[in-house]
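New to this. Help decode the following:
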Amino acid sequence: MKTLSRAVLLAAAVSLGLAGCSAPEKAEPARPVSNLEVRAESDATAEVQRHADDIADIIETPLEKPQVRPISCRPEAGKTTELGYSVQGVYQLGLERVSDPVGTLEVIKMFWKELDYQVPIDKTVGSRRTMRALTPDGYTVDLQTNFPKALRVTVYSACFSRPAPGPSSS
């Protein structure tokens, strides 16, 4: 009986010893965690376009030279992270056919205030005027004039996280 007990103890000890010597499982690399709202880039791009279209509709002039692209999150958005993205849209509106460009900008400012946009920047230096609106949904709309010729419209989306990629089909 002693021999059987020793054999069982020896087997248990060897078993435990081998378990402790086994190769550790490969750990998954830590994935960064983001607390940003998840939004598809196409949805953020559509919202940027909508904000620019609002300005074009008020001025009754088509948007020209659109340049829309994803960028890193901006410090002005309150979030700087490698995990997120923002969408930037840059457009130009011709003002040659606008009879009262200064009055039109006042109409835009009233439109923004009706929509509860904050307007933290509204300044004029010489013949240039700069206005900035912050929307309730985290977008920024910048207007810069170059009277009497053009209005530059720059729209930045809020900072978002991209959705996780779906399963790929093979």
